[in-house]
Design brief:
mainly alpha; 11 helices; about 75% helix; flat
Length: about 240
């Protein structure tokens, strides 16, 4: 394809993704109160007994349900979105490499959902418990907007972080990274991971930051193994 043809293909795939998310949004909006109820569990457990999340303006509940529906749509339409990404990348792959579409879709969806679930069940309860305990001398008035902003950022952030092995697999497939390179930069990677954990963590304690960092380190090591497999396959095919 020419450069303009690539742009046209990108526009086509992007419009498809927007359409998927729009349809998913309408479906999610119907269940928005239930989705928010599910998302608010970590905060409710950390708040004093009988304490609820509050809103300070009339429009806050509506805007919260809008963003909750966006989150629900992202998770609901993720397989279709990733398929469009694959369709955009596929023309640059060899015929044998195109057979990875099913592993790509299943692993990407699984890892993204696993990242969101890890954040919801492990990180959020500890983070909110720590933050609310820090203010135990005061009366907590956690607004639904503040809670949702932090929660959405963390859930989507962990979902993206857990995609590391898939991203490395694609880079290794095109010969842009190798297991040797990733292993050589392991020390730098550890430093970057802990800096990232410190920036993303809503609490300053070392334990919570380690909860962020340990999964990223495991994913990085897994990515080295994946890069080694694709490097071996490229070598076997005579591409290196």
């Amino acid at each position: 394809m020419s450069f303009l043809e690539h742009l046209d293909e990108f526009r086509k795939r992007l419009l498809h993704i927007i359409a998927y998310i729009g349809i998913g949004f309408l479906a999610s909006f119907y269940f928005a109160p239930r989705i928010y109820e599910f998302l608010s569990v970590p905060a409710k457990k950390a708040l004093p007994e009988g304490q609820k999340l509050v809103f300070t303006t009339l429009t806050q509940p509506f805007s919260v349900y809008i963003w909750v529906s966006v989150l629900g749509s992202i998770f609901l339409t993720l397989p279709f979105t990733l398929y469009e990404v694959w369709k955009f990348i596929a023309p640059g792959l060899y015929r044998k490499e195109k057979k990875y579409v099913i592993p790509f879709l299943t692993s990407s969806v699984f890892l993204f959902v696993a990242g969101g679930a890890f954040c919801y069940y492990v990180v959020l309860p500890r983070a909110y418990g720590f933050l609310i305990k820090m203010g135990e001398g005061f009366t907590p008035m956690l607004t639904i907007n503040d809670y949702l902003d932090i929660t959405l950022t963390m859930i989507l952030g962990f979902g993206a972080i857990f995609e590391m092995p898939v991203i490395v697999a694609f880079l290794a497939m095109f010969g842009l990274v190798s297991a040797k390179f990733l292993w050589k930069k392991f020390g730098y990677a550890i430093l970057i991971i802990f800096v990232t954990a410190a920036v993303l963590s809503p609490t300053p304690d070392a334990v919570t930051q380690c909860i962020y960092a340990v999964p990223m380190i495991i994913l990085y090591i897994l990515s080295i193994g994946i890069a080694a497999i694709f490097g071996w396959r490229r070598k076997k095919q005579g591409l290196v």
